[in-house]
């Protein structure tokens, strides 16, 4: 299980996968700074991945804010992550070229690169 941050705040992470025989919805809590992939693995969720380094694009997930009004809930995607998502057909060229994404909207992210930042709630669909 994840270790809570010093201030005790946790992020609620909801994993949803319609690709499994029935919709899988798992709620778990995680400390800020963890990647979505690590949270999934420590919660027993079999999220597809190959490299875990952001090179292959197999761990692409849809990160959806839940009732988000405050600060950003996950880190901004870096240049390489945006390029991998573009090559995987998950985002457009204009999204790949844009360094600042509207974090209040759903976005494709690489689970291995998407780190929890704030103690809020997020839905991760894969």
Provide an overview of this structure:
- With 126 residues, the chain is α+β, with helices and mostly antiparallel strands.
- The chain has a single domain (11-125), classed as Beta-grasp domain (Ubiquitin-like (UB roll), Roll), CATH 3.10.20.30.
- Helices cover 17% and strands 23% of the residues.
- It contains three helices and five strands.
- The protein has a five-stranded mixed sheet.
- A hairpin with a 6-residue loop joins β1 and β2 (24-30).
- The two termini are 22 Å apart.
- Residues 1-6 have low confidence and may be disordered.
Structure summarized in a few sentences:
This protein is α+β, with helices and mostly antiparallel strands and 126 residues long.
List the helices and strands and how they pair.
Layout lengths: L10 E7 L6 E7 L5 H7 L17 E6 L13 H9 L5 H5 L9 E4 L10 E5 L1
Parallel strand pairs: 1-5
Antiparallel strand pairs: 1-2, 3-4, 3-5
| Helical residue percent band | 10-25%
Q: Total domains, how many?
A: 1
Tell me the number of helical segments per DSSP (H or I, 4 or more residues long). 3
- Amount of beta strand: 15-25%
CATH superfamily: Beta-grasp domain
Element-by-element helix/strand order? EEHEHHEE
Number of extended strands: 5
Distance between the termini: 22 Å
Would you state the CATH class? Alpha Beta
Q: Which blocks of ≥5 consecutive residues have pLDDT under 50?
A: 1-6
Could you say which overall geometry the principal axes of the C-alpha atoms support? globular
CATH architecture: Roll
What is the third-level CATH name, the topology? Ubiquitin-like (UB roll)
Largest sheet: 5 strands, mixed
Coarse structural class: alpha+beta
Q: Biggest sheet, strands in spatial order?
A: 2-1-5-3-4
Radius of gyration from CA coordinates: 14 Å
Average per-residue pLDDT, rounded, comes to 83
């Amino acid at each position: 299980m994840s270790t809570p941050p010093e201030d005790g705040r946790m992020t609620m992470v909801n994993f949803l996968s319609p690709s499994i025989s029935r919709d899988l919805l798992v709620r778990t809590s995680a400390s800020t700074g963890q990647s979505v992939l690590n949270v999934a693995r420590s919660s027993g969720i079999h999220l597809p991945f190959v490299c875990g380094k952001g090179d292959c694009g197999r761990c692409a997930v849809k990160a959806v804010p839940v009732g988000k009004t405050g600060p950003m809930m996950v880190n901004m995607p870096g240049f390489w992550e945006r390029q991998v998502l573009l090559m995987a057909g998950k985002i457009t060229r204009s999204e790949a070229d844009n360094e600042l994404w509207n974090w209040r909207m759903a976005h494709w992210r690489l689970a291995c690169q998407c780190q929890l930042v704030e103690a809020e709630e997020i839905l991760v669909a894969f």
